[in-house]
## 1
Amino acid sequence: MKANIVTRFAPSPTGLLHAGNYRTAVFSYLFARQNGGKFILRIEDTDRERSKPEYEANILESLAWLGLDFDEKYRQSENAPVHREYLEKMIASGHAYISKETPVKEGDRSEVIRFKNPNKVVTFSDLIRGEISFDTTELKDFVIAKSLDEPVFHLAVVVDDFTEGMTHIIRGEDHISNTPRQILIQEAIGAPRPIYAHLPLVLAPDRSKLSKRKGALALTEYRDRGYLPQTLLNFMAMLGWNPGTEEEVFTLDQLIEKFDLAKVQKSGAIFNDEKLLWYNREHLKKLSLSELTNIATERIPDLAQLNSNQLKILVPVIFERLSTLAELDEMREGGEWDYLFTAPAVSKELLGETKYLAETIALLENISADKFVPEKIKDAIWDFATEKGRKEVLWPMRVALTGKEKSPDPFTVAAILGKEETKTRLLAKLD
């Protein structure tokens, strides 16, 4: 593959883009980085009425969150003088002409600029779909600008791709029908033809095209719902591509290494929320204890009161069954870990029979404070609990420590609380 590869992501800032849209950015980025090339961001803001600064800001925020760094950034509207220059050249050379129109309805133009169609068959090779041919006769003389200062999509895109040095155009298959028009314009202005790769559409579970109305969310909404950026990156990379092995969980560096446009499928890729959640759990498992601790203490600030030994025990327990980081917010709001800092009020009904509590305390006394860890606590109590009945021994111990019907096992809780606090809470519940 050439070393001077240049790809682009060219979104329109006319609304919040959903995760399916960003799949194009992911594929373009991976291909460029894999080949030591450039990845360009171009904001296509020529729709002046619908383009909004907040949508552009969200695009930048989303790419930064994913970790997709771009080498150059352009705003299509800033290239307007170059668009006009090429329109003038095309009119002068006879490739385009000013067309007098009969307005059909109020607001229609009485004059536009049309491309002089040579009415020929255009054939191009697509990296995913192979050779594709179009008879352009049916396109007639199509409009390329409303005026010299108002190019339409096809003209602006071709000029921008040419002047920005694009070598590969990686985009959705819904753009296939645009390609013959754009090739004709390329030939008219003397631009080299880029290599095309049209990706399969991202589909909703009912196999319709993914859209916001079909439940697709803006990328930053997934962030706010507690998904990791590496989750979305990995998930989107697998929408329409796989490495040809059973592997599914990849870091960005691994994706750059393994990605292959030739292995992109032709059929649509289903956006499956359950699979996305699975990816999030898998990527949470790959985080280090230090990373998990930072996340936990950031989302539940009270946990920062605990020392490193306590957090070392607690954090894996917190994340054991976690699917999204938003569940940490629910824990904080529900006061799930408040008992670690304040002895809970415990009802006698929930506590139940405490006849073995004194013997439990005596067994715990045999463990030194510095050895008061879950394994040692369990070893000290397990045989006794097995003999007398695990529920009869362990239930009142756990409830006395947490005040909750559901919580981590009593060995883990006791280790986090420490020997003295554990004894104090258990002694307080003796009959």
## 2
Amino acid sequence: MRTDPHLFKQGEAIQNYEQKELMTSGHLACPGCGGALAMRMALKELGEDLVVVIPACCWAVIPGPFPYSNMKVPLMHTAFETTGAVISGVRAALDIQGKTETQVMGWAGDGGTFDIGLQALSAAAERNENVIYVCYDNEAYMNTGIQRSSATPEYTWTTTTPTEFPEASPKKNIDRIMAAHAIPYMATTSPAYPHDLMAKFKKAKEIKGFRFIHILASCTAGWKIDSARSIEVMRLATETNAFPIYEVEDGEKYTINIEPKGLPINDYLKLQGRFRHMNDQQRESTQRSVTKNWEWIKKQASNS
């Protein structure tokens, strides 16, 4: 199994955390929002020479109402399904102006990535556009009332999959989909591991071509968790193999970045109200599913 030691420089991550803040106070995120934490960390590594494109999602609200913004970088709002197309257009416009070193980042939720925006995302990846696409994944359409998305795990409660009829389909594996495009860089990460998250944005910044970063982002309202336990819950997602943290380069070189403890999946499920209705059979099925996916990732890493 391959691991990448450069992603574990925690002291360097802490030092970078003292860099100039590009995300100010006064934003409208809920307490404990994983997406807000992730954006703060990402901006520290990407720096000010950056254009951010955001479709309809929680982050369309978080920066504040137009013309205000809590971000010290140019911000462009776009339609729900168009992130991949818009970042491609912004990249082309900057290149025409000779601003080839300016980074372009699309920042979309799971609804705008797994579902509504998948076509434009796939097209941009297929063209190998020189952009960074970030999916902050809170596993449902949280901004519009906690409706299920194709990122919603099986058996999950949402307002459109109530406890009597919970989510019936497994979560779409967006990471394998993006790796299948053979893009230069695909990575998963989490605000629970800031040294890993920041190192991956630093690495992505130095790569040319299409880069896809998938961030697990806790939602205290949708996951029904105490905001004080947000980091703990996201960390348990990785420690139980529900959200493995790894990267894929050029569609074939797999590297595991965080070696999980392999804790029982119930350690993760029991802290969240959205899973409280699950029975033993459903929990056992979930355990088999996450174990199978983790074993597949380990196999790819060992063969890389």
